[in-house]
Amino acid sequence: MQIIKCKDFFKIKTKNYTISLDCETPDADFNFLSHSHSDHLFKTKKQAIMSEETYELAKIRGYDYNLMTDIPSNISLINSGHMIGSKSLFIKEDKESLLFTGDFSINSRAFISGLKVKECNNLIIESTFGKPEFIFPDAATEVKKAKDFINDNLKKDYLTVLMGYPLGKMQEIMHYFKDNSSILHPEIEKYEKTLNKFGLCNGNNCKLNPDLLFCPSLNSKNEYFNRFKKTRGLKFAVFSGWNINPFYRKRFGADEGFTLSDHADFKELLSTVKKSKAENVYVHHGYSKEFKKFLRIEGINAIDL
Has this prediction a pTM greater than 0.85? Predict the structure, then answer.
């Protein structure tokens, strides 16, 4: 089994096939797509392995893939815990194995099951939050803080605007506050029909005097909010793992920022590496240099390609 770096992603050469991971390469026999976030989508005419949810959501975003249904028997997909439909990839060939995490979280939350780490010889792991200062607070505590913020706003008849990434993060937020009446920004509403198909029914839509407005991460001065400001006061909160930096919310002019992430934090990255018992660890994305340096201090074979 050969692991080859392709810009920010990888391809794997086995005895019988070459597979590209979250990218398109000319010599690959087929591709793997881990999830439907726009920074992972790519154009290809080849067959691609992915979940049905990813296939349908990618189509809404303008990517109509040739879904591969006859998957090689030595490939298995595992819930990666990142968003609805997200998968990690496991390949076993003879006595060698590989786990490609893709974007992942080991924490189960809302309707999402966290990644259950498999032991492997080779681990390819993302490191979005690969520095020791990135340790997330307890998610349940953050949700409670957000609920208190909403309830305080309701007492003053404010409309609370909850902002986050429109696909993945926002559906998780909607799940936490599904008992509140709400209205959806069009960028979020466009996924609802497909998500309902997979049993995900979030939100309690109410066009008249809703408690909440679910919205992508826009600046609070964006003209989209003008029509709401005519009738009510607005309070803004943004949800992201990057709220670990207290200045993050200020980018959006938000009143509050709550640290809820769909990625692994530093401790969880390290835990994943150790649980995998991998002999070779390939780190990519985010703070990869810093995380590789830390792994080497820990005596782990973090490989440069």
Answer: yes
